[in-house]
Amino acid sequence: MDATAATTPFSTLIRMASHEQHTEAETSTFMSDLLGGRLGVVAYTRYTEQLWFVYRALEEGAEALLTDPVAGPFIQPELMRTAELERDLAHLRGADWRRGLEPLPATAEYADRVTECARGWSAGYVAHHYTRYLGDLSGGQIIRDRAEKTWGFARKGDGVRFYVFERIANPASFKRGYRELLDAVDADELEKRRIVDECRHAFALNTAVFRELGEAFPRSA
Ligand code: HEM
User: Fold this and answer.
1) Whose CA is nearest to atom 16 of ligand 1?
2) CATH topology for 8-216?
3) Which stretches are transmembrane (predicted)?
4) Rounded to whole angstroms, what are the CA distances from 94 to 102, 158, 202?
5) Ligand 1 atom nearest to 182, measured from its CA
């Protein structure tokens, strides 16, 4: 472990390590087209469906990890998104939204990896937890704003509830607290390095989902 890694807070390390991939995800063709208003609500719906599979994997595994020394402190009920995604999907797909719902191959792979970590490697689960929830609390708010404007959802209403954390009044301070949890994570240097690697993996899994969504929805303009 180099001197920088030994003295830099873990929350900074993990952010720096995924910075490049964050830009890649943010500027992926699918995201750019979606946020640029170049795709229809069907593409937004398909994207929301993929999120449901990912969050189901994250949150089904959460309860068993509550007492885990590594992942336990990160499990916080105010973050849970499955119920919100289900309300959004009922709005987008109708009451029988579950019927015929299938993940894209990249989404199935992503969800499987999350489940695998949840069941067998709690530090790896932390990497996935960080990648999704801290992102949703940050860039997610930009996506919500664009979605409301592009497809006419009510502000913070059905269709965009996934992006609304009703029980987190101050996201900036919540994120500060979350970074403190990362800095205090119960893992040695080698394990921290493995968490960072898993975070990069998590970003790659997200980018793969965007790639498949991009193939399914080439820009209409
Ligand atoms: C167009 C899509 C996206 C936009 C506009 C966006 C934007 C942002 C912004 C503005 C921040 C705040 C940076 C800060 O607090 O200094 C952020 C942080 C973050 N984003 Fe994104 N993001 C997007 C996509 C993603 C994706 C796809 C992921 C991964 C699944 C992701 C994961 C994260 C994470 C983990 C952070 C927290 C970084 C940290 O402070 O440790 N973002 N994003």
Assistant:
1) 138
2) Heme Oxygenase; Chain A (1.20.910)
3) none
4) 16, 12, 30
5) 41
